[in-house]
Amino acid sequence: EAEVAQSPRYKITEKSQAVAFWCDPISGHATLYWYRQILGQGPELLVQFQDESVVDDSQLPKDRFSAERLKGVDSTLKIQPAELGDSAMYLCASSLVRISTDTQYFGPGTRLTVL
Amino acid sequence: GENVEQHPSTLSVQEGDSAVIKCTYSDSASNYFPWYKQELGKRPQLIIDIRSNVGEKKDQRIAVTLNKTAKHFSLHITETQPEDSAVYFCAALSGGSNYKLTFGKGTLLTVNP
Questions:
Q1: B3 touches chain A (CB under 8 A)
Q2: Which of B88, B38, B90, B102 is nearest to A108 (CA)?
Q3: CB–CB of A101 and B106 under 8 A?
Q4: Mean pLDDT across chain B
Q5: How far is CA A75 from CA A24, A33, A57, in A?
Q6: Mean pLDDT across B48-72
């Protein structure tokens, strides 16, 4: 069964450093999502792509976060500079098409710790 | 925007008992309500979902009910087993063109043998 892949699984960095996370969605999935999950809470959407285009980045802190999906396949989420409050699980998800009831499949996440 | 409230935050049951988790949502235009199970250190996985034109859906020991008028939906697990222990998240998909999934804060379910 195809799954969403993410790397690295764990990342420890110091504040003010740059970090990057990578996501490879399920093959053929047009829509890709990046979520942030703070311990004890549900995932919160950061950015949503349809193919290579951003369709929603209203919750992305654009002064330090950036995301791209250049060829409409895999995606990178970057934080520069990292802050202590960025410590969280970063989850990537994908869905086949961008319709209202399409299932979102999640990757295993990247656990970020900022010291 | 959409707001999803989930209760309880923790739930402990004996093996074989039933477990119920409840969620409310604020956006009356929301039309899709999935439930995800997240085991410790693993990815969230969809266990069941319900669309707004349906009041109830069942899959073996798991069922979900939706009350659109009251804007709440519930997850029911019967004959619980230790492997049901996990964090469960409800979510609601906003209507319109946004297609944004808003999650509840999760319920930690512990099934005691």
A1: no
A2: B38
A3: no
A4: 93
A5: 7, 9, 14
A6: 93
